[in-house]
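Still learning folds. Look over my entry:

…
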Amino acid sequence: MKRTLALAAALALALPAHAFDWNDMLKSVVNKPASQPAAAGGVNALSNTDINAALKEALTRGADAAVAQLGVKDGFFGNPQLKIPLPKNLQKAEKAMRMFGMGQQADDLVLAMNRAAEAAVPEAKTLLVESVKQMTLDDARGILTGGKTAATDFFRKKTETQLTERFLPIVKTTTDKAGLAQQYNRYAGMAAQFNLVDKSQSNVEQYVTQQALDRLYTLIGEKEAAIRANPVSAGSDLLKKVFSAVTGK
């Protein structure tokens, strides 16, 4: 039975890898085309100090909200839209595993993956706050007149590499407790050598880390887009002043 299971998993992983639909959808939120250019007069009337302070406030609010939502038990697992599923490659093998009575192992891995993401996300807060402090006045003016998630794009550029490094060991510690994780890593690692699976999915911890970061930046982007779209409801006089100058609302 073990040989049959191994063969089923290997065959499934050998099939061409496809980008995960939800991940594509998440990335599309961040990469939507820029909004209409801001009215020059309104933005030019703003001081650099106000622009800088408003963007720092918006970024900090978005980061705090995203970390608070995701970095708790069931932040990922309890939300169908944010829950991290098995990679496509492993989903194909999962059917064979369930046929051989290994459904519980698959379920345990999904739970471990999401618990790992929930445990890792709080690590993001410090780095996100530090990146806000590093934003220059030139950065601020460019971000203000950029697209609806320009500030979030700045966040991602400044923090993604470091957050990946911080997330990986935390995610690995949790997913290693699920027996299926080692099996997946073994087969996916071999398949990746022959370009049969995407390298970003060549092991569970890399996959979970990327999925967690995608969701984190997306939630920050949604908060930013909401402030830009309706600055009057932002709840801050400074945010209303600065973003209203951009939108004309």
Observations:
- Residues 1-40 have pLDDT under 50 and may be disordered.
- Residues 39-84+98-247 form one domain.
